[in-house]
Automatic annotation (TrEMBL), chain A:
Organism field: Vreelandella sedimenti
Entry keyword annotation includes Chloroplast: no
Family note: Belongs to the binding-protein-dependent transport system permease family. CysTW subfamily.
Record localization: Cell inner membrane; Cell membrane
Membrane topology (UniProt): Multi-pass membrane protein
Entry-linked PANTHER family: PHOSPHATE TRANSPORT SYSTEM PERMEASE PROTEIN PSTA-RELATED (PTHR43470)
GO cellular component labels: plasma membrane
Name by which UniProt lists this protein: Phosphate transport system permease protein PstA
A GO BP annotation: phosphate ion transmembrane transport
Lineage, top ranks: Bacteria, Pseudomonadati, Pseudomonadota, Gammaproteobacteria, Oceanospirillales
From TrEMBL, chain B:
Organism annotation: Vreelandella sedimenti
Disulfide bond recorded as keyword: no
ABC transporter domain boundaries: 32-274
UniProt-listed Pfam families: ABC_tran
PROSITE patterns in the record: ABC_TRANSPORTER_1, ABC_TRANSPORTER_2
Gene Ontology terms for molecular function: ATP binding; ATP hydrolysis activity; phosphate transmembrane transporter activity
BP terms from Gene Ontology: phosphate ion transmembrane transport
InterPro entries registered for this protein in UniProt: AAA+_ATPase, ABC_transporter-like_ATP-bd, ABC_transporter-like_CS, P-loop_NTPase, PstB-like
Record protein name field: Phosphate ABC transporter ATP-binding protein
Length: 388, 279
């Protein structure tokens, strides 16, 4: 029994409608995801970008004898509520280093109070009416300015908002990541090579394989507990240190590196291995000279992504004590340190308006580093990808 | 089936399907002596009780329908089957009077003496130069740059590829055409100076002109090397092989001088296959 085109089209209409509807639904979900992404970035940039600027006030500093004990004595009385409390310690320190300066005075730009900073940026602030008037007068005479915030990028954490910076957290993250990479990369790659190239396919290796795959899905805070129990309590690694943090994150990164390395090794065609064996290579020579070079881009990408994941991790570090107040930028693997996400977490808990801005600023720095790392991974993959 | 070896062209014809009485006079001509070789993939028996003698400095072709075990047998000769975990072999494969499956036989040493060329050209993803120089350097046959260059040139000349690639030795081996890549693989195999070269359907991925080039090459190479080739192409076997073995369902049905085999096959199955009645 044959059908005319009209009859068939009639039936087809419903199917076409259905597929069009489905297409719109899928596009809609993509659009929704994109919208959230845009909103997130817009909000972060809106809140975080002001953190990269900081208010400064131009004033006359008179280095009197009294200022050597109390830095506030160097300033005009009415200015004191506007400038940063840090002068209390900064001015005497300067004077102790240069005793010749006592008795002189000079015009300088001084770090303003965070309330002034927030007032100038149009945020919530706690300045009184008179203070606002005094400030407005100085703004008009050009003695107040928003400048690039060198403190934010150049110093460690502080309880004084205008003095708090992300540098100690950045350094802590770098140190922690060095430890993580130094442990998880060689162990992960070697494990994957063994499992993929040498291990017999038996029950034991299958169990190991399943366990490694499951490890990648374990809540990260459990790795923190493991780190606390084994590294700190059993091995006595100093707590809060980049060493213990890096070791804990290495545990977390290992399965990611193992899985991505195995995938990379598996994608090397069998014919390359045969070619190697055919000319009399031993198994290790085949792996080292022929398989690994081809798998390297994949291994690198996987490791970088694993590292980026570890870099954004906070939960396991809370357990090993890396969410700490670290005012000094320290370059040591065994001293207490903090990392970027932990610093953001700390700032997020501060009540002052100025710290809200710091939190968003910290997130921007972290995001920038993570996005560059991922972009680097993509570039590496594209650059070293080989066809055969 | 003739149970006694017959003398032809002054040379011993090989044993067919049954134990072969060792002939001392012919022994030095033997490359491989295979006795009662059985092979299983898991529970599947792929080779059944093979007995065959392969002669030096000759081209021996292994023919037969797909899945008859000819490639599997070829891989027994340099123990490439070791790479497949489920494979189990029994029986004797002897080279130079030594069992290649013996525990003290190092498969790396064996593969140095028994090179292999694969169905699909598989140059290393390195330069043409490196493709050839890599293995000799690894085996400590050469070390200095000049020695390497000399060896690379010689191998490429032997493989008939030198004139085509001498100006681009440092370009990737994969940039060559399929036929050139296959000759590069042959050059790579002969660079380690093996005794035997196994070829697993070396021309099945190539066009007719490249195929003819490789066939000519095989003819020249047999002066220096023993060549054992698997082919689907009966005309190719007839053209290049001195001896031909016909495999069917894991057994060697017939093994003889190629001319004899193709003119007067002793077995009905061989005749049917050669005349294209199945396969």
């Amino acid at each position: 029994m044959s059908h005319s085109f009209d009859e068939i089209s009639q039936q087809l209409k419903r199917r076409h409608r259905k597929s069009t509807r489905l297409k719109w639904i899928t596009m809609g979900s993509l659009g929704l995801a994109g919208l959230f992404l845009v909103l997130f970035f817009a909000d972060m940039l809106n809140k975080g970008l002001p953190a990269f600027q900081q208010a400064y006030i131009q004033t006359e500093i008179s280095y009197t004898q009294e200022a050597e004990t109390d830095g506030r004595q160097a300033f005009d009385e009415e200015l004191l509520p506007l400038i940063s409390r840090t002068v209390v310690r900064v001015i005497p320190m300067e004077l102790r280093n240069n005793p010749d300066m006592i008795g002189t005075s000079e015009e300088q730009w001084v770090l303003a109070n965070s309330e002034v900073d927030q007032y100038l940026k149009g945020h919530r602030h706690r300045l009184s009416e008179e203070e606002q008037e005094a400030l407005d007068a100085r703004v008009e005479s050009g003695q107040v300015d928003l400048r690039f915030n060198t403190t934010f990028f150049g110093s460690g954490d502080s309880k004084i908002a205008e003095n708090a910076g992300i540098l100690s957290a950045v350094v802590g993250t770098i140190m922690t990541m060095i430890v993580t990479l130094a442990i998880s990369f060689p162990i992960g790659v070697m494990t994957a090579i063994y499992l993929e190239e040498f291990a017999p396919d038996n029950r034991l290796t299958q169990i190991i394989e399943i366990n490694i795959n499951n490890l990648a899905a374990i809540p990260s805070i459990l790795f923190g507990l493991l780190g606390l129990a084994i590294f700190i309590n059993f091995f006595g690694v100093p707590r809060s240190s980049p060493l213990v943090g890096g070791m804990t994150l290495a545990l977390m990164t290992l399965p990611v590196i193992i899985i991505s390395t195995r995938t990379a090794l598996r994608s090397v065609p069998e014919s390359i291995r045969h070619a190697g064996f055919g000319v009399g290579c031993s198994r290790w020579q085949v792996v080292r000279d022929h398989v690994l070079p081809l798998a390297m881009p994949g291994i690198m990408t996987g490791s970088i992504i694993g590292l980026a994941q570890a870099m954004g991790e906070t939960a396991p570090l809370i357990i090993v004590g890396m969410v700490a107040f670290i005012p000094d930028v320290g370059v040591s693997f065994t001293n207490a340190a903090t990392v970027m996400p932990a610093q953001i977490f700390t700032w997020a808990g501060e009540p002052e308006q100025a710290f809200v801005e710091k939190t968003a600023g910290g997130i921007l720095v972290l995001l920038t580093i993570l996005i560059s790392l991922n972009a680097f991974a993509v570039v590496m993959r594209k650059k070293f990808e080989r066809r055969w | 089936m003739n149970s006694h070896a017959t003398v032809m062209n002054g040379q011993q014809t090989p044993a067919v399907g049954q134990p072969y009485t060792r002939n001392e006079a012919a022994c030095h001509d033997l490359s491989f002596r295979v006795r009662d070789l059985n092979l299983w993939y898991g529970k599947n028996q792929a080779l059944k009780n093979l007995n065959i003698d392969l002669f030096q400095k000759n081209v021996t072709a292994l023919i037969g329908p797909s899945g008859c075990g000819k490639s599997t047998f070829l891989r027994c000769l340099n123990r490439m089957n070791d790479l497949i975990p489920s494979v189990r072999t029994e029986g004797l494969v002897e080279m130079d009077g030594l069992d290649v499956n013996a525990p003290k036989m190092d498969e790396v040493a064996l593969r140095r003496r028994v090179g292999m060329v694969f169905q699909k050209p598989n140059p290393f993803p390195k330069s043409i130069f490196e493709n050839i120089a890599y293995a000799p350097r690894m085996h400590d046959l050469v070390s200095r740059k000049a020695e390497q260059e000399e060896l690379v040139e010689k191998a490429l000349r032997d493989a008939g590829l030198w004139n085509e690639v001498k100006d681009k030795l440092h370009e990737p081996g994969t940039s060559l055409s399929g036929g050139q890549q296959q000759r590069l693989c042959i050059a790579r195999a002969i660079a380690v100076q093996p005794d035997v070269i196994l070829m697993d359907e070396p021309t099945s991925a190539l066009d007719p002109i490249s195929t003819a080039t490789i066939e000519d090459l095989m003819d020249k190479l047999k002066e220096k090397f023993t060549i054992i080739t698997v082919t689907h192409n009966m005309q190719q076997a007839a053209r290049v092989a001195d001896y031909t073995a016909f495999f069917h369902l894991g057994e060697i049905i017939e093994y003889n001088d190629t001319k004899v085999m193709f003119s007067t096959p002793a077995q009905k199955k061989t005749e049917d296959y050669i005349s294209g009645r199945y396969g």
